[in-house]
Amino acid sequence: MLEDHTTTASSPTEWPTAYPGGYAVVDVETTGLARDDRIISAAVYRLDARGEVEDHWYTLVNPERDPGPVWIHGLTSDVLEGAPLFRDVAEEFAARLDGRVLVAHNAVFDWQMIAREYARAEREAPVRQRLCTIALSKELGLPLPNHKLESLAAHYGVVQQRAHHALDDARVLAEAFRPSLRAAAAGGVRLPLLECRPLTEWADRPSPLIGRQAGGSGGGYGSYRPGSWRPSRKRPACPHPNPGRYEDGKRLKQGMRVAFSGDTSVERELLEDRAAEAGLHVATSLSRLTSLLVTNDPDSGTSKVVKARQFGTPVVDEAAFGQLLRDVEPAEG
Predict the structure, then answer these.
(1) Torsional sign, CA 197, 198, 204, 210
(2) Angle separating helix axes 166-187 and 133-140, nearest 10 degrees
(3) Where are the beta strands (DSSP E) in the chain?
């Protein structure tokens, strides 16, 4: 069930030469929020360099499992049963993304869902950068009451017709992104672009085949149960004592307590695994004992960033942390 519509438009606005040449505004609806959940519908609005709509595309996707929260997205097993599998639409989806910046509201979620689907299909999505409209609204200082899509849409007078329908959500976001992009261009704002790295480390496991939900036409989960993307396992305790805080310009040392906050280019769980494999202690919270906080948004108001400021905990971004991981000093003894 594919739709493809094409329009043309242009903008006379002067434009920063460093800005990307095109965007793919994306929304995906899914069976849930866990790492082994699946995409059940996807929409892409392709925009030119100035945010004008070039065309749009929409498809349903058979997740080969229970569709999850039908009461949210409205897509039942009966509707999805005849839809194409992701591998059947992967090439067309890729053509819509190729050479463009992926734009989404809470882009890390959409990107990770897309990356996992391509990993299952043993392919790579042709996306190298993403832009989160939540991050862009923060950069612009928009006076929004919260970071919901409906609030961003209301700010620009965009009317939503079908919330949680991928095509309408993508349309709303495209219409709200255009004035945001123009405001950024007019103000010389650096776009908050993040790298998209294809997922190449994964392990899947059988999921319940798609079928009727419990009770026939209801909106329950049926046999669906949220779970972990990779086989669940408890990370072993770090065997090394904490040598203290990281010092700028020096090496990380085995046993250091490292915490992560916010959006990352590499999937968080993989990043944490690499830290643990290097002999670091991966901390789920931040305390006075934390050696280092890794975040790409040091100005955010997350609890970890706030505590890091209070405690004077050193902070580095993901790229710097990746470099530090290449040469971790062994623990004493």
Answers:
(1) positive
(2) 30
(3) 2-6, 22-30, 39-48, 53-60, 101-104, 129-132, 193-195, 257-261, 281-283, 292-295, 315-316
CB atoms within 10 A of CB 317: 14
Tokens of 204: 């899947």
Residue 115, both tokens: 């990356």
CA angle 5, 84, 170 (to 5 degrees): 40
CA distance 240 to 254: 6
**5 closest CA partner among 50, 39, 44, 61:** 44
Q: What is the pLDDT of residues 149-204, one digit of tens each?
A: 999 999 999 999 998 899 999 999 999 999 999 999 999 999 999 988 877 655 55
With residue 171 as reference, give the H or E element that holds it: helix 166-187
Instruction: Compute CA 311 distance to the chain's CA centroid, rounded to the nearest angstrom.
Output: 29
pTM: 0.66
Which residue type does 196 have?
A: C
